[in-house]
Amino acid sequence: MALIDLIQHNTTALVALAIVLGLMIGSFLNVVIYRIPVMLQREWRQQCCEFLEIDEKTVKDEGTAPQHKVFNLVKPDSHCPHCNAPVRAWQNIPLISYALLRGRCASCKTPISLRYPIIELVTGLLSGVVAVHFGATWLCLAMLVLTWSLIALTMIDFDHQLLPDNITLPLLWLGLLVNTLLPDAGVGPADAVLGAIIGYLALWSVYWAFKLLTGKEGMGYGDFKLLAALGAWMGWKVLLLIVILSSLVGAVVGIILLLFLGRDRNIPIPFGPYLAGAGFITLIWGEPLMSLYFSRLVG
Questions:
Q1: Is the Cβ–Cβ distance between 105 and 83 less than 8 Å?
Q2: Cα 46 versus chain centre, distance
Q3: Mean pLDDT of all residues in the chain?
């Protein structure tokens, strides 16, 4: 009770708690980002073998899925992918362990990607931003879950051009539930349902229009579901803002990748990270951006 009273009356304590919690969640997100695509790959492989009536053991493994009998978000325990040495508890402290280990495995001294502490840091900082904006409320906790999910989806789509249904669909239903149970969410159930429907159909329509005109697929179905989830959380009124922001950022980043980094034009650029980023921006700064837009439109 003392802790609850403290964070309710002390913004600094609330933000500090959110950042620490975000750092720990960021460490877990690193696991989610790596393991969920591997889990899906193994599941698809098994389903294909069952459909074709092929013994899975006879199929040559050309993927990167680790050969563990049980592979999920809990098992096997964290270990070095190079030497299989287990990661001890003290070696898994967000940011601190990376610094103490100097960015290398404690056993084989193989360099550890800088991406891991960056994701932990970004998750911690964004969690602090959410805490400042929403205060010590149940809505704040819900928005933290949304933020963490968007971070995971961003990195998975960046790595694999994949937005997993086992994240996007629960996120959609959770958004509808939050806007039904929490009156202070500011988005009524009707607006949330319309947001989910319009969000999905908007990109679905763009997808089919582009495909009919060019014969190519401009985006994946996961993008439809992600925008539907954002609509379920924030309502249909902000969907246009999210699409505009994501398109602008995507266009700028795409031009930079093509002109300055020499990216192959035939390699598709995932749209999910831009949708997720635009969704977070709208979550925190949506109201002033909408007010600015309408003031310029009227003026």
A1: yes
A2: 26
A3: 87
Residues 122-160 have pLDDT tens digits of 999 999 999 999 999 999 999 999 999 999 999 999 999
**Residue 146, pLDDT score:** 98
- Place 57 in a pLDDT band, splitting at 50, 70 and 90: low
With cut-offs at 50, 70 and 90, classify the pLDDT of residue 186.
confident
Kindly report the pTM of this predicted structure: 0.91
Is pLDDT of 66 > 80? no
Which domain covers residue 83, as residue numbers? Answer: 1-136
- Residues 284/133, Cβ–Cβ less than 8 Å: yes
Same domain for 248 and 185: yes
Residues linked to residue 12 through DSSP beta bridges, in sequence order: none
Question: What are the contacts of 113-122 at 24+ separation with CB within 8 A?
Answer: 116/27, 116/30, 119/26, 119/29, 119/30, 119/33, 119/151, 119/155, 120/23, 120/26, 120/27, 120/30, 120/94, 120/95, 121/23, 121/26, 121/95, 122/26, 122/151
Question: Which helix (H) or strand (E) element contains residue 3?
Answer: helix 2-9
Give the list of residues 6+ apart from residue 295 with CB closer than 8 angstroms, or none. none
Q: Are 89 and 47 in contact (CB under 8 A)?
A: no
| Among 81, 99, 70, residue whose Cα is nearest residue 30 | 81
Burial class (CB in 10 A: 0-12, 13-18, 19+), 27: buried
Q: Which of 136, 168, 192 is the last residue of a domain?
A: 136
According to DSSP, the residues that pair with 104 across neighbouring strands are 111
89 and 184 share one domain = no
Among left, alpha and beta (phi > 0; psi -120 to 50; other), residue 136 is beta
